[in-house]
Amino acid sequence: MKMDKIENSTEIKALINEHRYLFWYIPELEKELISHELLVETILNYGDMNAVRKLFGIMGINETAKVFFAATGRKKLNYFPEIHNFFTLVFKQYAQ
Prior knowledge:
The protein is mainly alpha-helical. It has one domain (10-94). The chain has five helices and no strands. It has helices at 10-18, 36-46, 49-59, 61-71, 81-94. Helix 2 packs across helix 4 (61-71), helix 3 (49-59) packs across helix 4 and helix 4 crosses helix 5 (81-94).
């Protein structure tokens, strides 16, 4: 999986640190530099509803939907089928 290293906001870094167990496979020094694509994918696939709400609160539902739908164009989709179906319905209903 390609990881684009970006400088994340303080709020996103706090979200990553709060749910760092979800990113167990990423070296500690690189956790706060993960891409929004990896953040959204991991939180939606493995996070609880509290983590999802925090993600929406920080990124906004429209930006989260944009990142989510950008990933659906890839040849290999990393979302679980039921997660992909659920959030497709959610974003089509609530995102602009």
